Amino acid sequence: MSPELDDLLDEVRLLWHVAVQATERLHDGEAVTVGMRAVLEFLARNGPRSVPDIARSRLVTRQHIQSLVNGLLELRLVSLEDNPAHRRSSLVQLAPEGERTIERMKRRERRFLGGLRLRADRDELRRAVATLGAVRSALGGSP
Questions:
Q1: How far apart are CA 14 and CA 6, in angstroms?
Q2: Which CATH number among 1.10.3720.10, 3.10.290.10, 3.40.50.1820, 1.10.10.10 corresponds to the domain 3-138?
Q3: Least crowded by CB within 10 Å, which of 23, 27, 87, 128?
Q4: pTM, entire model
């Protein structure tokens, strides 16, 4: 591995931990965890999906997503609907309160991120996204 790739991956790890901490502080009063928030956002972007579909898209285990969905069900932020494609694997769907919750969290995040003094312009951010996507793909993640 090149030193530059090693540095990039180290920076990604550090960024991940700082981002999780910032997100936890930002949403301190919310009942959802960072993982639950990711499921809510995924459903808001992609519509109803089965637990295995969510797990595959997030590159995590079905069991991990199932535990997050169980917590979201308890909070009444998602519901389970019949899946016409599979009898035993229901579709997880955002409930109205789940829609309001993820929108509230995203508004809070946009305000926070809008106040950052980021030393990168839009083109640099687009290149960073493309670079990280290429590394993820090379490591065996979905394109």
A1: 12
A2: 1.10.10.10
A3: 87
A4: 0.86
User: Quick one: tokens of 61?
Assistant: 């285990």
Closest by CA to 68, choosing from 45, 86, 47, 41, is 41
The pLDDT tens digits of the residues spanning 86-129 come to: 888 899 999 999 999 999 999 999 999 999 998 999 999 999 99
Q: Kindly report the number of other CB atoms within 10 A of residue 51's CB atom.
A: 22
Spell out the alpha helix ranges (H) of the chain.
Answer: 3-26, 34-46, 51-58, 62-74, 96-114, 122-138
Task: Evaluate the CA torsion angle 13, 15, 21, 27 in order and state its sign.
Answer: negative
Other CB atoms within a 10 A radius of the CB of residue 103 amount to 12
Q: Are 54 and 42 in contact (CB under 8 A)?
A: yes
Integer Cα distance of 42 and 39 in angstroms: 5
Could you give the count of Cα atoms lying within 13 Å of 138 in the half-sphere of its Cβ? 9
